[in-house]
Amino acid sequence: MSRYLISHWEPETPSFWLSKGKATANRNLWISIPALLLAFAVWMVWSVVVVNLPNIGFKYSTNQLFWLAALPGLSGATLRIFYSFMVPIFGGRKWTTISTASLMIPAVGIGYAVQDINTSYPTMLILALLCGFGGGNFASSMANISFFFPKSQKGYALGMNAGLGNLGVSVVQFVVPLVITAGVFGGLGGDPQLLNTGGITKELWLQNAGFVWVPFIAVTTVAAWFGMNDLASANASFAEQAVIFKRKHNWLMCWLYLGTFGSFIGYSAGFPLLIKSQFPNVNPLQYAFLGPLVGALARVAGGWISDKLGGAIVTFWTFIVMAFAVVGVIAFLPNGGGTGSFIGFFWMFMLLFAGTGVGNASTFRMIPVIFLTEHQRAAAGKGPAAEAQAIASGNKEAAAVLGFTSAVAAYGAFFIPKSYGTSISLTGGPEAALWCFIGFYVTCIAITWWFYSRKGAEMPC
Fold first, then answer.
1. Which of 109, 181, 183, 399 has the largest count of CB atoms under 10 Å?
2. In this predicted model, what pLDDT tens digit does every residue of 147-162 receive, in sequence order?
3. Tens of pLDDT along 127-184?
4. Residue 96: exposed, middle, or buried by beta-carbon count in 10 A (0-12, 13-18, 19+)?
5. Which is it for the CA torsion 137, 140, 145, 148, positive or negative?
6. Are 173 and 64 spatial neighbours (Cβ–Cβ below 8 Å)?
7. CA dihedral 172, 282, 280, 441 (to 10 degrees)
8. What is the structure's pLDDT at 173?
9. Contacts from 443-448 at CB under 8 Å and sequence distance 24+?
C-alpha cells in the first residue's frame, strides 16, 4: 500500500483530529492553495492578454476580444462537471498532481502564439479553451479539501482554499502587466513586440503572460506528488456520487452558487474590457486586479463569519448587498451623452466583488452542513454504525455537490463577459445585461430565505 494513502480518517473524532488529523489536513490544504492559485491565474490570463492584443498588431473586433475573454469560462465550467467526480475515483494527491501539470499546455501555448501576429484566430480560440484546465481544477480541489476537515471547520478550510486560490485572478491581472514590460527570460523567452503609442515606440514581451507561470507550475506539481495524501474513506465510484442529481438541494445550491461564484469569476473576466469600453481614457490594467483581490480576501473572511453566524443568513444579506451594488454600477455608467463617473463605478464594483467573495464562502459553508444534516437526520436512533455511515455518506455527497455546483457556477465566467458584449452590440451599453443580473439576484434572495434562512426553514444552515 502506498505511504501516501491514509486508510483511517476520522476528523469528527476530537482525539484523532488533535493527535494527527489536524496536521495532515493543514499540510494538504497548504499545498492545495498554491496549486489552485496557479489554476485561477492560467484560467483568467486571457482577461489581460486580450487587452494587449490590438496593441501589438492583432486585428480583432471588440466582440472577438470578448469571445477570447469568455471562452476559458465556458471550457472551465464544462471541465468542472467531470473534475467534480475525479478525487474519489483517482485520489486527491494523484488528481491534484495531474490537473496542476496540465496547466503547462495553455501556458506554453500562449507564450508561443502571441509572438506571431499571423497566428490564426481559431488557434487563439483553442488556446482560450485550453485555459479551461485551470477552471476545472477548482471543482476537484474543493471536493478534496472538504474530506480532510471536520464539519465545524469546513467553512474555514474551504474559505482558505478557495479564497487564497481565487487570488490567482488578482495575481494574474497584477503580475502580467509588469512581466510583459521586460525580457524576463532573456533569449529563451523570444523577441519583444513593438508597441507604438503617441509616436513613441516601446517593447512588449506579451509571451511572458504565459511563460511566467511555467516554473511555478512545475514546482507545485512536484510538491503535490510528494506532499499530499489520498484518503481511502473518500473513494467512491461515479455511480455512487451520481446520487446527487436526485437531490433537490444540489440544484438549489447550484443556483445560489451561480449567483456568488458565477458573479465573481464573470465580473473578473469581464472587468478589464468593460472599463476599457465604458471609460476609454482609463487604463484598465491599473485597476482590474483590485476587484478579484477584494473578492478573494472577502471569501477568506466570509468563511470565518459563516462558521460563526451560519451560512444561510450571510448568503441572504450578501445577495441584497450585491443587487444594490449593481444598481450603483448602472447609476455611474456613461449615459445620455454624459461621461459617467469612473470613481463611483469603481467603488460600486469593489462592493460587488466583496459581496461575491463573502457569498462564495457562505454558500460553500452551507453545502456540507446541508448534506451531513440530511444523512444524520435519516440515521438518528438507528445506532452507532448507522450514524458513522451517515457521516461518511454525507461527506461524500457534499464533496460531489461542492464540485458540481462549482461547475455550474463557473459558466458565469462565460455568460457575464458575453452578456456585456451582446448588450453593447445590441443597445450601445452594458445596462441591459446588468439589469438582468439584478433580476437574477432577486431570485437568489427568495430561494435562500424560503429554504434556508427564515424561521422554520426546511434546512436551516
1. 399
2. 899 878 887 888 889 8
3. 999 999 998 898 889 889 988 998 788 878 888 898 889 889 889 988 998 998 887 7
4. buried
5. negative
6. no
7. 60
8. 85
9. 443/255, 444/255, 444/256, 444/259, 444/319, 445/316, 445/319, 445/320, 445/323, 447/252, 447/255, 447/256, 448/256, 448/312, 448/315, 448/316, 448/319
Residue 193 DSSP label: E
d(CA 43, CA 55): 22
Q: Which CATH number does the domain 5-453 belong to among 2.60.120.10, 3.40.50.150, 1.20.1250.20, 2.60.40.1180?
A: 1.20.1250.20
CB 79, CB 133: distance < 8 Å? yes
Q: Which letter does DSSP use for residue 192 in this model?
A: P
Please tell me the distance from the alpha carbon of residue 191 to that of residue 189, in angstroms, as a whole number. 7
Only one residue has cell 511555467, namely 214
3-state secondary structure of 194: strand
pTM, two decimals, is 0.79
Render pLDDT for 383-413 as a digit per residue (tens, 0 to 9): 888 888 888 888 888 888 988 898 899 888 8
H-assigned helices in 180-247 = 208-211, 214-227, 238-241
Calculated CA dihedral for residues 436, 437, 439, 443, nearest 10 degrees: 140
Residue-level pLDDT at 196: 65
**Average pLDDT across the chain, whole number:** 90
C-alpha cell belonging to residue 105: 499546455
Q: Which three cell numbers stand for residue 276?
A: 476599457
